[in-house]
Amino acid sequence: MGAEKSKYEDDILRSLRKITRAIDLHSRQLASQYGLTGPQLICMRILKDQGELTPTMIAKEMSLSQGTVTGVVDRLFSRGLVTRVSKNRDRRSHMVTLTPEGVKMVKNAPSPLQESFALKLRAIPVENQLVIHTILRQIVSMMGAEKVEAAPVLSSGPATIPAKEVQAFLDHIDEKDEVNSFQNVKSDKNSNEGTS
Fold first, then answer.
1. Per-residue confidence band for 109, with pLDDT thresholds at 50, 70 and 90
2. How far is residue 160's CA from residue 141's CA, in Å, rounded to a whole number?
3. pTM for the full predicted model
4. CA separation for the pair 181, 177 (Å, rounded)
């Protein structure tokens, strides 16, 4: 039998849903108003700030794989927002830069959600940041999401994982919850016996 429901459980779940919803709404706004994803906007902002870069340099700045950045740059190129100029005669090595249309798009697009969040986060005391960090890591662990790959930016997008994999992940969480509930009840019982 699982542990008794916490009086905070519903509020915690509601807060998690609000966070997810805020990220989703921002991503949809970017997509509908500007036709951009979060990673595309971040890539363009990096190019605006730093000028001409190679895809490898962009990947390093964004903490993304080379393959992912190639896809981002390809989509921006197809929309005429960036140019690619080959360096020397090596077709594999090229520089990426914003086009005038890309510069205009970056100036008009809203800040990425993570940027406005980061500014607010930096404004609170370091001790409070540590508390948030600790609790979020605990939530990640409680959800069994330690090995889930995290995007470098706060954004959501279309599901790219097959339904079978999603169901397997959810089944894994359910199994883990049952084991954790049992372990929590067992440790609570042992700690109560030790204090009696």
1. confident
2. 23
3. 0.59
4. 6
Look at phi and psi of residue 158 and say left if phi exceeds 0, alpha if psi is from -120 to 50, else beta: beta
Q: Which of 7, 19, 5 is nearest to 139 (CA)?
A: 19
Cα dist from 165 to 147, 169, 170, 182, whole Å: 14, 6, 9, 26
Q: Which pLDDT does position 179 carry in this prediction?
A: 43
Cα–Cα distance for residue pair 150/167, rounded to 1 Å = 19
Among the listed residues 70, 93, 91, 66, the one whose alpha carbon sits nearest the alpha carbon of residue 82: 70
**Where do we find the tokens 């919803």?**
21
Better-scored residue on pLDDT, 196 or 148: 148
User: Residue length, the chain?
Assistant: 196
Cβ of 98: how many Cβ atoms within 10 Å? 22
Q: Is residue 101 within 8 Å of 109, Cβ to Cβ?
A: no
Identify which of 71, 75, 64 has the alpha carbon closest to the alpha carbon of residue 149.
64
